């Protein structure tokens, strides 16, 4: 029987909770001005890994692009966007930045895009992010796509999960070490063993399954709602309580849903009020 190679332990040092608290206070949070902030403590946090999962067309990529624009445009920080689904178009970045009144050139220059051709490329991504750029956000849009394309059939599942597990382990360690926020998006498949009584977010499983859970700090389920509205629901988190927020996809990327329109009677009343406003209060 082969013996496990003996590995020398690293230097083990306990830290007080007080010291850890001091370290925590140095960690920055970047508000994005989107409904997502309300799910994750007010903005994306350095070193935290957040997964958005949901069905095709639910809005995961639009969330990712909007958060990229906000970090690059408002906070003037470098964002690395790994586009495993080949859907990145700079025109959409320009549109979101323009409609939010941001500096378009600054936003475009701060977003670095890479399309990995294979899962080996994807796993090499962390070694190819220049540390001197001090990345603040790494987005992997379609995390499991390269693995799904290459590993087909049940007999390859163990190998695929092994690589995915290793990559996620490295990703989490890298995020904490470099203090970079990480966002991954992931597709779902229907859980064949789920009963129809379960909530949708538990009937639809993220590809990669439990392998992902240990490496991810917060998991957000995204789904289509009624009348073009979408819902982002924080399903599982080591830091925040469960919550959900509606949003819609617009020229500004993602935004809160529109206020419901006033009924006609109210419109007439408000028009009458305006008519009655004294002339000196008008702004013409
Ligand atoms: P998959 O990657 O296929 O799993 O889907 P996804 O969850 O990433 O969906 P995505 O974020 O690409 O959302 C797709 C939806 O966003 C489309 O159905 C459109 O309704 C909307 N959308 C995409 N581009 C634009 C755009 O430029 N403007 C607006 N207003 N909506 C857009
Ligand atoms: Mg997508």
Quick one: how many beta strands?
Answer: 13
Give me the CATH fold name: Rossmann fold
Q: Distance between the terminal alpha carbons, to the nearest Å?
A: 89 Å
The main β sheet shows up as: 9 strands, mixed
Q: What is the fourth-level CATH superfamily? A: P-loop containing nucleotide triphosphate hydrolases
SSE series: HEEEHEHHEHEHHEEHEHEEEEH
* Top CATH class: Alpha Beta
Low-confidence stretches: 266-284
Q: Strand fraction band?
A: 15-25%
List the quaternary state of the chains: single chain
Helix content: 25-40%
Bound molecules: guanosine-5'-triphosphate, magnesium ion
Shape: globular
Report on the structure:
- This protein is an alpha/beta fold.
- The protein has one domain (27-257): Rossmann fold (3-Layer(aba) Sandwich).
- The chain is 33% helix and 22% strand.
- It is built from ten helices and 13 strands.
- It has helices at 17-25, 60-73, 90-99, 104-110, 119-123, 145-150, 157-178, 200-203, 210-213, 264-276; strands spanning 29-30, 44-45, 49-54, 79-83, 111-114, 137-141, 181-186, 188-190, 204-206, 218-224, 230-237, 243-250, 253-255.
- The strands form three sheets. The chain has a nine-stranded mixed β-sheet. Strands 1-2 form a two-stranded antiparallel ribbon. Strands 8-9 form a two-stranded antiparallel ribbon.
- Helix 2 packs across helix 3 (90-99) and helix 2 (60-73) packs across helix 4 (104-110).
- The radius of gyration is 22 Å and the shape is globular.
- Mean pLDDT is 86; it is low at 266-284.
- The site of guanosine-5'-triphosphate (GTP) has 14 residues, from helix 2 and strand 12.
